[in-house]
Design brief:
The structure holds two protein chains of two kinds. Chain A is mainly alpha-helical. Chain A has a single domain, classed as Formate dehydrogenase/DMSO reductase domain (Formate dehydrogenase/DMSO reductase fold, Up-down Bundle), CATH 1.20.1630. Chain A is built from 13 helices and six strands. In chain A, helix 1 runs antiparallel to helix 2, helix 1 crosses helix 11 and helix 8 packs antiparallel against helix 10. Chain A is globular and about 65 Å long. Chain B is mainly α. Chain B is built from 18 helices and six strands. A two-stranded antiparallel sheet of chain B has the order 1-2. A two-stranded antiparallel sheet of chain B has the order 3-4. A two-stranded antiparallel ribbon of chain B has the order 5-6. In chain B, strand 3 and strand 4 form a beta hairpin. The longest helix of chain B has 40 residues. Classes of the chains: A mainly alpha, B mainly alpha. Chains A and B meet through helix 3, helix 4, helix 5, strand 2 and helix 12 of A and helix 2, helix 3, strand 2 and helix 17 of B.
Chain lengths: 384, 535
Amino acid sequence: MILHTLLSYEVLRVIWWLLLGVLLIGFAVMDGFDLGAGMLLPFAGRNDLERRVIINSVGPVWEGNQVWLILGGGAIFAAWPQLYAVSFSGFYIAMFAILVALILRPVAFKFRSKRDDPAWRARWDWTLFFAGFVPSLIFGVAMGNVLRGVPFRFGPDMHIFYDGGFFGLLNPFSLLCGLVSVAMLAMHGAAWLQLKTQGAVADRARLYGSLAAVATIVLYALAGVMLWSFVDGYRVTSTLPADGPSNPMLKTVEVHSSAWFTNYQAQPWLYVVPGLGLVGALLALVGMRARAELMTLLASALSIAGIILSVGVSMFPFILPSSIDPRASLTVFDSSSSHLTLFIMLVVTAVFIPIIVAYTSWVYSVLRGKVDAAAISEDRGHAY
Amino acid sequence: MDFDIVALSRLQFALTALYHFLFVPLTIGLAVILAIMETVYVMTGRTIWRDMTKFWGVLFGINFAMGVATGIVMEFQFGMNWSYYSHYVGDVFGAPLAIEGLMAFFLEASFVGLFFFGWDKLSKVAHLIVTWLVAIGSNFSALWILIANGWMQNPVGAAFNPQTMRMEVTDFAAVLTNPVAQAKFVHTVSAGYTVAAIFVLGVSAWYVLKGRHLQLAKRSMTVAASFGLAASLSVVLLGDESGYLSTEHQKMKVAAIEAMWKTEPAPAAFTAFGFPDQRTRETHFAVHIPMLLGLIGTRSLTTEIPGIDDLVHRAELNIRVGVSAYDALQKIREAGSTDAIPESARTIFEENGHALGYALLLKRYVDDPRKATPEQIAQAALDTVPPVWQLYWSFRIMVGLGMFFILLTATFFVLSARRRLDAHPWLLKVAVFSIPLPWVAAEMGWIVAELGRQPWVIEGVLPTAVAVSNLGAATVLGTIVAFTAIYTVLFVIEMKLMLKAIRKGPTEDPAPPPSAYRAIADPEIAGLPRTSPGA
C-alpha cells in the first residue's frame, strides 16, 4: 500500500495526538455527565421517585456514552501502543479500581429497579455514587501523575519496568488534580440534571452545580499555580526526528523547572486554552443562576475541553514522561504506531466519527425534553 | 509458592474471558431473535409479537448490562497484565479493537437505550430499525474481536521491525481477510445464535409445562427451534471449516486435540475415545475410526497430518534458526545507526527473522537465548506441545454437545411444524434442562482455541511467558481474588434477577391511559380484540 504516504508520518502523529485529545474530551463530556449525575444522585435526589428521575435522565444514554471510554482505550492501543502498555500496567491498581467502578455501574443501573425493597435500592444508589466518584477522582489523579512524570523505564528488549506502587500516585499535586476532575464532572452532571429534570431535583442540581463550578475554578487555578511553582517539567535536549522510528530510547531528555510553560511562553495565544477552562466554568455558574439550561451544559462542556486540552498543550510533545529515566519518556514523535497503522486508523476514524455523531444526535433528539416524574411513578415508558 | 506471574496473569485472563463469554453469546443471539420477533410484529401488526419482543428484551437487558460490564475488563487487561504483548503487537492488534468500538459497539450501545426507552417515543418502523441496529452492532462487534483473535492464531500481514522491537502492519487487507478470523467469526456467531435459541426454547418449554403464557411460549418456541436448527447446523459444519484451517496454520493444535503422538500414513484415523497421557506420550484405551481425521482435516486421502513428535522436532529446528535470528537482531540493535549495521547480520535476520519468536521460547530458561544449552533447547521444543488431555476432552465435549443441539432443535422444529409442541412433556423437560449446555459448549470452544495456542500468545511470534507485565505476583493474586469475589456476587444476583423475570413472565399491556386522543390514534386501544395471552 502506497496510499498512506499521502500524509507524512509527522502530520499523522500530530493528528493522532489531537485525536487522543478529542477522545479524552469526548469521554469526559459525554460519559462525564452521567458519572457526575451518579455522584450527585444521593444528594440531588432525596426520595425514590426523585432518584429514579435522575437515573432515568441518563438511563437511555449512559451505555453509548461509556463507549467513548472503550473507544479511547482501543484507540490508544492502536495509535499509541507504548502509552497504552506503560500507563495501563503502571497504574495497575488504579486501573483496577476504575474497572471495579465500571463493572458496578451498568449493573447498578440495570439491577436497581428490579426490586422494590428500599434497602436494595439504597445499596445501588451508593454504588452509583462511588462508581461515579472513584473514576472521576482517579482519572484526575492519573493526569496529575502524568504531569509529574511516572517511574518507568525500558529493559533491553523494550520490556517495561514500573518502579512505583499505588501509594506513590497519591501525592499532593496529583490529589489536587483529582479534585479538579471531581469538581468538573460534578458541575457537568449538575448541568445535565438542571436541563433534564424539573422542580426540587433541578433546584438542588443548580445549587450543587454552582458550588461545583466555583470549586472547579478555584481548584483548577490552584493546580496551575502549583504546576508553576512546584512541578518540574521535561524537555528534549537532543534531536527528535518527527518521522523517526517509534523507539523512545533514541533521544535525551532533561528535567527542567518551567518546561511545562515553554509552549505557552512561545505562543502566548495558547493561554486561550486554560482560559476556556475558567471562562466555561464561570459561564456555567452564571447559567445555573440565570436558568439558561442548555447554555449551562454547553459552557460546562467547554470548561472540560479547555481543562483537558491545557494539559496536552503544556506537555507537547511529551505524552508520558518518565521520572526515573527521562530518556524513556514517551513523546508524540517516538511512541506512536507505524505510519501505515496511523493512516488506516485515521481513515476509519474519519469515516465513522461523523456517523457516530449523527446517530448519537438523533438518539438525543428522540429523548429531548425533561424526564417526566409522573410517567415514572406510573411506570410508563421508562426502563429504570 | 507455585504460582509465578505468568501463570497468575493467564489465570486472570482465562477467568475474566470465560466469564465475559457467559454473556456475549446470549447478547449476540438474543439481539437477532428480538429483531426477528419485532419484524413479525411490524409486518403482521399482531401485538403478541410485540409482547414477545418486550419480554425477551427484559432478559436481554439484564444480560447485556453484564456483558458491557465485563467487556471493559477485557480491553483494559491487555495493557494492565500483558504490557509487553501490547507493545509488541499493538500496532496490529490494537486496530481491530479500536475499529470494533467505532463501527460496532458504539452502534449497539447507542441504540440499546432507545430499544428500552423508545417504545412510546418512536414509530413502529423506527423502533424496529433501532432493534436491528442493536443486533447488527453486536454481531459486527464479534467480527472485529475475532479478527483480532484470528490474528493471534494466524499472524498474517505483519512483519517485525528491529528498530522499534515490535510487529508492524505490512498488509492490513490480509489482517482483515485472514481466513482463520473469518471461519472463527461465523463459528462464534453461530454459537451465539445456538445459545440464545436454546435459552428461548428452554424457558418457553418451562412455561408450556406450567401451562402459562401458552400463546407467547409456543410462538417463541417456533422461532427458537427454526433459528436454533439453522444455527446449530452452521456451528457444527462451520466448526469443521475452522478445524480444516487450523491444520494448515496450527498443526500442533490439531495434533493435540486428536492426541496424535506419531505421524500416521494418510488418511489418519480419528481417535473417538481415549485417555491421553502427556508424560508417556501415548493414549490409553484409544478407540480409532479409520481415515476419518485425515478426511476432515485435509479433505484429501493423501495429505499427511503431522503427529506431535514430528512437530516437536520441527520446533527444535525452528528454535535453532530463531537463535541465529536473535543474534543478528542484537547486532543490528547494537549498531545504532542504519549505516553501521553489519551486512552479515542484516542478511541473517532477513533469512531467519521469521523464527525469531522461537528463540524467545528460551527466555523461560535463560535470559540470553544465545547462551541456551542443548537440553534447554530440547525442553523449549517440548513446551510447544499444549496440554493434550484437556484439549482432547474439551473438544469432544463441545462436538458432542453440538450434535445434541442439532437433534434437539430438529425435534422441536418438527413438533412445531406439526403443531404438537406440548405433546410430549418429557421432551419439554429435556429442553428445560438443556438450557445450560450451549454455554458449556461455548466455553469448551474457547478453551480449545486458546489453550491449544499455548505456549504462544501470538502463534509462532510471541510466547505467552514473555508477554506479561512485570507486576508483583501478590498484586495480580489480589486482583484475581477481587475479580472472582465481585463476579461471583454479580453472577448470583444476575441469576436471581433472570429467574425472577422468568417466573414473573411477560407483562400484559398496561391499561390504556384515559385519553380520547390516543384512543382514536391507536385502534388497538380503541377496543379492538387483543391477542395477548390471558387477556
